[in-house]
Amino acid sequence: MRTESNHPTTLVPPLHGEGRGPHAVDPLDEVRDLVRACMQCGTCTASCPNAASMDLTPRQMWRSLLFGFTDEVLRSKTFWMCSACYTCTLRCPRGLQLTRAMAALKRLAAQHGPGAARRKGIFYQAFIDNVHKYGRVQEMDLMFHYFMAMRDPLLPLRFTPVGMKLLAKGKLHAPDGRHKGVLDDLFTRVRELEGNP
Ligand code: SF4
Ligand code: SF4
Q1: Nearest of 4, 7, 17 to residue 64 by alpha carbon
Q2: CATH number for the domain including 71?
Q3: Is the peptide bond before 175 cis (omega within 30 degrees of 0)?
Q4: Please, what is the average pLDDT of the chain?
Q5: What is the C-alpha to C-alpha distance for residues 79 and 31, in angstroms, rounded to an integer?
Q6: Which atom of ligand 1 is the closest one to the Cα of 45?
Q7: Domain boundary among 86, 113, 140
Q8: What is the 118 CA–ligand 1 centroid distance (Å)?
Q9: How far is the CA of 35 from the centre of ligand 1 (A)?
């Protein structure tokens, strides 16, 4: 388990929205509402199987959010490491929807974060579109659509070495339609639950 420091509580918190202009709307306000009742007990961090791979533990993430460290939060890799296991949500003594907060941070970082976060968001979208379309991951089609969305002609070259290794190990599969549509009901249900039918 990751050892927690007092970061960022030792820092002087910036004024809310500092650096974004006096009338700027902070894109993270909707997530702050989800964690406003956090009492910093650390149960979420102690329960998280991925905390050791995070630059801010879950507890630190909620603290950073509530202190208005918007840019630091958007730059963090913490929510990208969240595997949505729901352990923190189940164990939080305040009953906070922490997994939902992590998912919202992924979405908001992809929209408002630095370039690296936006690139991760594009990959996530390509991945989920691929799984929805084929019913399982079809690696070649996934990477094709990722490269097209990124609009960087040199990007495929950077992936060539790892692609060759995967090909040699038989880990790359050409798209096939055997499982097409098997996840349609699941995706429809998720859209309904998210209020986006
Ligand atoms: S378990 Fe809940 S109350 Fe405790 S630190 Fe995490 S979010 Fe806050
Ligand atoms: S849902 Fe995410 S943040 Fe919460 S315990 Fe699981 S991996 Fe950690």
Answers
A1: 7
A2: 1.10.1060.10
A3: no
A4: 86
A5: 12
A6: 6
A7: 113
A8: 28
A9: 8
